Amino acid sequence: MISHDQYENYIAILREELVPAMGCTEPIAIAYAAAKARETLGEDATHLHVSCSGNIIKNVKGVIVPNSGGLKGIEAAAILGTVGGDPSKELEVISCANDEARALTRKLIGENFCNVSLAENVPNLYIEVTAENHNHKALVRIENFHTNITLIKRDNKTITENAPEKVNVPSESHSADKSIMTLQGIVEFADTLKIEDVEEIFSRQVECNVRISQEGLDNKWGACIGKTMIETWGDDVRTCACARAAAGSDARMSGCPLPVIINSGSGNQGITVTLPIVEYAQRWRISRNKMFRALAVSNLVSIHIKHFIGSLSAFCGAVSAASGAGAGITYMAGGDYASIGRTITNTLANVGGIVCDGAKPSCAAKIASSVHAAILAHHMSMNYDEFRGGEGFVEDDVERTIKNMGYIGRIGMKETDREILNVMIDSVDVDSCM
Q: Do 329 and 397 share a domain, yes or no?
């Protein structure tokens, strides 16, 4: 049985992870760092320099910065954060940017106000913004997590310096410990969950993520993956679970300013762990309380898998999030620990190879494919069908399978990650390699 300390740790994980963000979290993190640098400078800047890891470049290159009037790229995110951002809002830093800030951002992009460089030998999630003018210089560094500021300097004076692994958690005296998570513990937590402990967290997650999903279905955003699925495949629960998750990403990747509640630092993953659970709960007439228990399973399974992979890699996070959604669906269907484990294993064995080539409209299609695989995995599991230990990276123990997938994503795909970035920035002649 889960202990009191373990229970409280899972609550802390949910509070830490399930926070609002506006748009793709990587450009928003750049805007946040830039806004904080401008605040630290205390004056208008005349120049910005942004140095960031390859994974940040990969995830910002193809996505529209929300509330920017359709602008893309690191320069747009950094400049808008500087001229129109409020750093106190963290991942909603540019939610208050107005027409004047957008016009000034466009002007400064054309004047080479901001330059960008690739940071070498740094964490996968690394952003450093320097804002300067004729009088002063301010530097802000973010590492490992999208709001984890590890260094603030003004001129030669260090104002704030934290260890890179430190995560500041509002209203919490310490960070939650993800390393002690287990699937068994997650299921026991969901079974014993006091709904009042998560009422606010999950109510907000459902409200925000359903709203942006509906926006993606109602209007033309991105490649219209969600709309296309429903218009061509009908509205059965399986199609709608995939389509509604995809529709949220359709809108989000194309600059919709509506906030989402993230999971594992990603809005797409937050959408993916939420919408399939909500859709199945409605169709199956599941009570709100049981839906919240299923959301606990969905969110925590996703976080558990992603913990072994890392914040940013060549592994598509839609897969870990869809594994969580499948686990939550199995939980709502009355599945026990073994059934939920089979669902996770079946999902990972199917679509574990989807690569991340940055944030962009095609993320919605990857979400749809991953959720479809998770639903198949659920039905296989309920029929006691599963991929078995010794088949590829699958082990008899689901925890070992999760760790194997984590090793592949974190270590095995490092070179893949570098080559994806090389292709994206046109630094390799692919024809000469054929």
A: yes
**Residue 172: per-residue pLDDT:** 33
* The two three-digit tokens of residue 14, written as one number: 């949910």
Judged on CB neighbours under 10 Å (0-12, 13-18, 19+), 220 is: exposed
Closest CA to 143 of 125, 160, 161: 125
Nearest alpha-carbon partner for 28 in 17, 39, 20, 40: 20
Q: Is 190 exposed, middle or buried (CB count within 10 Å of its CB: 0-12, 13-18, 19+)?
A: buried
Mean pLDDT over 254-260 rounds to 91
Per-residue pLDDT of 289-326, as tens digits, reads: 999 999 999 999 999 999 999 878 889 999 999 999 99
Minimal CA–CA distance to 198: which of 294, 90, 336?
Answer: 294
- pLDDT band at 132, cuts 50/70/90? very high
Q: Tell me the residue range of the domain where 292 lies.
A: 181-423
**With the C-alpha atoms ordered 142, 365, 68, 87, is the resulting torsion angle positive or negative?**
negative
Residue 126: give its domain's CATH number.
Answer: 3.30.1330
For the stretch 351-387, pLDDT in tens is: 998 999 988 999 999 999 999 999 999 999 999 999 9
Alpha-carbon gap, residue 263 to 282, rounded angstroms = 22
Q: Residue 122: CB partners within 8 Å, gap ≥ 6?
A: 53, 143
CB 427: neighbour CB atoms within 10 A? 9
